[in-house]
Write a structure and sequence with these properties.
Largest sheet: none
Number of helices: 3
Shape: rod-shaped
Number of strands: 0
Main location: membrane
Distance between the termini: 42 Å
GO molecular function: symporter activity
Keywords: Cell inner membrane, Cell membrane, Membrane, Sugar transport, Symport, Transmembrane, Transmembrane helix, Transport
InterPro entries: MFS_dom, MFS_sugar_transport-like, MFS_trans_sf, Myo-inositol_Transporter
Pfam family, one: Sugar_tr
Radius of gyration: 19 Å
Strand content: under 5%
Low-confidence stretches: none
């Protein structure tokens, strides 16, 4: 939705290459934010995650083992 609303304006103002680089940079930024903010819960049971949340652990630590 955001791309649809901004693409043509950016294309007219910045040109093809710069529009591509803006969106590429935003993708890299959002990938890094996702890796930083979304906790790894691989091989962690839902019950363990729930226990950690009920203990008041930070969201980034919910997959940590006791």
């Amino acid at each position: 939705m955001i791309v649809g609303a901004t693409f043509l304006t950016m294309l007219n103002n910045l040109g093809n290459a710069n529009t591509f680089w803006v969106y590429a940079g935003l993708n890299v930024l959002f990938i890094l934010l996702t890796l930083w903010l979304v906790p790894e819960t691989k091989h962690v049971s839902l019950e363990h995650i729930e226990r950690n949340l009920m203990k008041g652990r930070k969201l980034r630590e919910i997959g940590a083992h006791d």
